[in-house]
Write a structure and sequence with these properties.
heterodimer, A: alpha+beta, Cytochrome Bc1 Complex, Chain D, domain 2, 12 helices, 5 strands, globular, B: mainly alpha
Chain lengths: ~325, ~475
């Protein structure tokens, strides 16, 4: 390295690459992290939990270590009827999402409301907690913030789960894991584009819709419809079940793979599912030999397809 | 290979690491394109191999991408660095043993990472899909040892100046290490939201812009003057290429998210900078094509030049697309469609693969001192790659334009799927041709090592006539 010009060159290289990093890393991230979270952003992170991909609480990506979303219409403490509310239940040991652990990412005003009125600072992962989304005002505008219902209302995770019951409990966070693991996002984007798509796929996401969510799983290569608002377009559980089991049942031209393996070995009643026989019956139907396709088995309560379905139907 | 892992550095023959890297890269290329062909078949015929989680499209897609980027492209780069860097410094590789270990750990880590991805264990972030333990492994055992070996070889060189290729190699290994560590930091620090999404694409952009594109170009800066015997047309244009890559190619990351809610200033800035990648592109292509003056017959007669110049020529449509498709005027139409998939394959399977192919062809002959076994098989490989790629690229470009029209007129999506079906079959045919060509290549290189004519002392491989 005896040449003087290499010293000059090396310094210029540092300036060039460093300058580029200031502009493309520091400035955008300062800008983006200053944005206040929207109600959508709060819902997403509270229902998905800490992380939607590989994590040490769920290394095999089975949907473990995730919160449950319970639709409540009576107070689990008193039993009195209340206005329907989504309660995000973190049982003891379930990691909290970023917005609880690092409240500053919630953005101007919402951080303060969540800490002061929502008391999220007192929530503990070891003891578990129940969160709800509350409304307050900041600078004269109505905003949403996170309320730690365990501190403010005395709701305990176990009580909320038993009050809601299994039919009102949704495994949205575990379903996001299934969405990422099964690679749904290689074809289905979660990003209606700003220049078009409004009419067909709904409103594009806004700047504050993502604070606390990871990964966003936008997808980049759309080979299938955008799903950001699919639950608002089609909320039929029956249609979704048929579509997941064999998409050609409801859409003959679909190129989506069959996700029948997500049903597991047994159906809702504990009877083994005979996939071979099902496929043979379906083939006969597809060739026009029979009038009706075979029925899709009802899935078991703890099957992966339930998780995925809960996630998909939560995309509103 | 195993016997060299624990041998003394002096006892390992020079070029050993490069040969291991070369054959590893070819094997990964066969695997990667085989997976590509399999995946394409699934898009054309959705019920092809069903009922198993492991063989579903969503589990296989990223395995194809990573086998090709980390296995084929990056290992071919490492192979080129292991023999070109010392050759241009008139010295030996700084540590042959480090190189052999690098190759061994690379294969082990990549196999492990791909197995996890195959099982669906992923961070869920495109192009940085590996879970973070694998990311750490890549930084510590793949990127850093390679970088140290390249830098130390350049520092210990026995020439006064540093040739263009080695600027790119030295800077490339530096930049990819930085880009990899910064790009994967959201996962280590659990960054969330748009910052995380933006960093994902910051990585995806820069790994191409500061690693694959400049290092592939650096190979051409070596092979064309070396094989034709012409000096590089202009070192000054080489300077322009180098500095404009660093300045312009490192900045437009946000153009991958033109339709996401990023700050508008960022998108505008990225879009303008994105057009400026035409500066390094034009500098590179003109410099190499002008170096060919008087030697154009070698484009037909010589395997390495045929591959290199094809890659250089493919850089023209690549950069014309790349520079302009990311502007708002065009991006709104093609974003997220098959057009982009075609463009990505133009970059990796077109432009860069042909340049790396030349480096592997030339390197294995030089290092093993054996003439290429068969020109006929090499030509078979070349044409199957080129025609297979062309079928793929054309069919996916058309499919993308159909999809773009479907998108802006908001037709029911299933009509787009129906209209794209013939092009999905064409894509599968093209991909399968590439796969077939690569199997032949592996055989040809194996036979070169086994049965190629020995190259006499003091002669270069391209000075000997082809025999088959």
């Amino acid at each position: 390295m005896a040449f003087r010009e290499y010293k000059v060159g090396a310094r210029l290289f540092g300036v060039a690459l460093g300058g580029s990093m200031v502009i493309t890393l520091y400035m955008p991230i300062v800008d983006m992290t200053s944005v206040a979270v929207t109600e959508t952003g709060l819902k997403k992170q509270l229902s998905y939990g800490r992380i939607g991909g590989f994590s040490y609480e769920d290394p095999w990506m089975l949907g473990e270590g995730k919160p449950k979303t319970v639709v409540l219409n009576k107070d689990p403490k008193t039993g009195q009827p209340i206005e329907t509310v989504d309660a995000y239940v973190y049982e003891p040991g379930i990691p909290f999402p970023s917005g609880i652990v690092h409240p500053r990412i919630l953005g101007d005003g919402i951080t303060q409301l969540s800490l002061d009125k929502g008391q999220i600072g007192s929530a503990s992962e070891d003891a578990g907690a129940v969160f709800v989304i509350a409304r307050g005002t900041h600078n004269g505008e109505t905003v949403t913030y996170i309320e730690n219902a365990t501190a403010t209302r005395g709701w305990q995770p176990a009580e909320v789960l038993s009050t809601g019951g299994d039919e009102n409990t949704h495994y949205i966070g575990s379903g996001k894991i299934m969405f990422v693991k099964e690679g749904c996002w290689w074809c289905h984007t979660l990003l209606p584009e700003q220049t078009q798509d409004w009419q067909y796929f709904g409103i594009p996401p806004r700047l504050g819709d993502f604070n606390g969510e990871s990964p966003t799983a936008f997808g980049s290569d759309r080979k299938a419809p955008d799903l950001l608002h699919v639950g608002a377009r089609n909320s039929s559980k029956e249609w979704m079940m048929m579509h997941f089991f064999n998409p050609r049942l409801v859409q003959p031209h679909s190129i989506m793979p069959r996700y029948d393996y997500m049903w597991g070995d047994v159906d809702a009643n504990g009877n083994p599912i005979d996939f071979k026989a099902w496929r043979a019956e379906y083939d006969a139907y597809a060739k026009g030999k029979t009038m009706y396709p075979p029925d899709v088995p009802e899935y078991a309560k703890d099957s992966q397809i339930r998780y995925l379905m809960d996630f998909i139907l939560s995309l509103k | 290979m195993l016997k060299y892992l624990f041998a003394r550095n002096e006892d390992i023959p020079p070029g050993t690491a490069a040969v291991f890297f070369g054959f590893s890269s070819i094997i990964w290329f066969v695997i990667g394109t085989g997976l590509g062909s399999f995946n394409a078949a699934k898009l054309a015929f959705p019920d092809f191999v069903m009922g198993s989680e492991l063989f579903s499209f969503g589990h296989m897609r990223q395995v194809h991408v990573f086998a090709v980027i980390f296995g084929w492209i990056s290992m071919a780069f490492a192979m080129a660095m292991m023999y070109i860097t010392p050759a241009l410094g008139n010295t030996k590789l700084w540590s042959e043993k480090l190189g052999v270990w690098n190759c061994f750990l690379w294969n082990v880590g990549l196999s492990l990472g791909l197995t996890l991805l195959w099982a669906g264990i992923t961070s869920g972030r495109e192009y940085s899909d590996f879970p973070w333990p694998i990311d750490l492994y890549i930084a510590a055992f793949i990127a850093l040892p390679l970088a140290i070996n390249v830098w130390m070889t350049i520092i210990k060189r026995r020439t006064q100046g540093i040739y263009t290729t080695n600027w790119f190699f030295g800077a490339g290994v530096f930049m990819v290490t930085i880009v990899f560590i910064v790009g994967n930091s959201p996962e280590w620090f659990n960054l969330t939201g748009l910052s995380e999404a933006y960093l994902t694409w910051w990585f995806a952009h820069n790994v191409l812009g500061l690693w694959i594109t400049p290092v592939a170009a650096a190979i051409a800066y070596y092979t064309v003057p070396k094989v034709t015997g012409n000096p590089l047309y202009s070192h000054r244009i080489g300077h322009l290429h180098f500095w404009s890559v660093v300045v312009f190619y490192s900045t437009p990351a946000a153009h991958h998210l033109m339709s996401a809610p990023l700050p508008e200033w960022l998108k505008s800035f990225a879009s303008v900078e994105g057009v400026l990648i035409l500066v390094p592109a034009i500098a590179f292509v003109s410099n190499l094509l002008l170096t060919m003056q008087g030697k154009w017959h070698m484009f037909v007669e010589n395997v390495e030049i045929k591959f290199t110049i094809s890659g250089v020529l493919l850089a023209i449509p690549l950069n014309m697309q790349g520079g302009f498709q990311q502007t708002r005027a065009i991006n709104w139409y093609v974003h997220g469609t098959g057009w982009i998939v075609a463009h990505a394959h133009l970059a990796l399977l077109g432009f860069s693969t042909f340049l790396e192919g030349a480096a592997v062809y030339y390197g294995i002959q030089t290092l093993l001192r054996r003439k290429l076994y068969s020109l006929a098989l090499a030509n078979f490989h070349f044409w199957f790659l080129l025609i297979g790629f062309a079928i793929y690229w054309i069919s996916m470009t058309i499919a993308g334009l159909i999809q773009g029209a479907g998108k802006i007129y908001e037709v029911p999506y299933i009509d787009v799927v129906i209209a794209e079906h013939p092009y999905m079959i064409a894509r599968w045919v093209g991909g399968t041709m590439v796969f077939t060509g690569n199997i032949v290549w592996l055989y040809n290189m194996y036979m070169t090592a086994r049965a190629g004519t020995e190259i006499p002392e003091g002669r270069l491989p391209h000075e000997l006539a082809y025999e088959r």
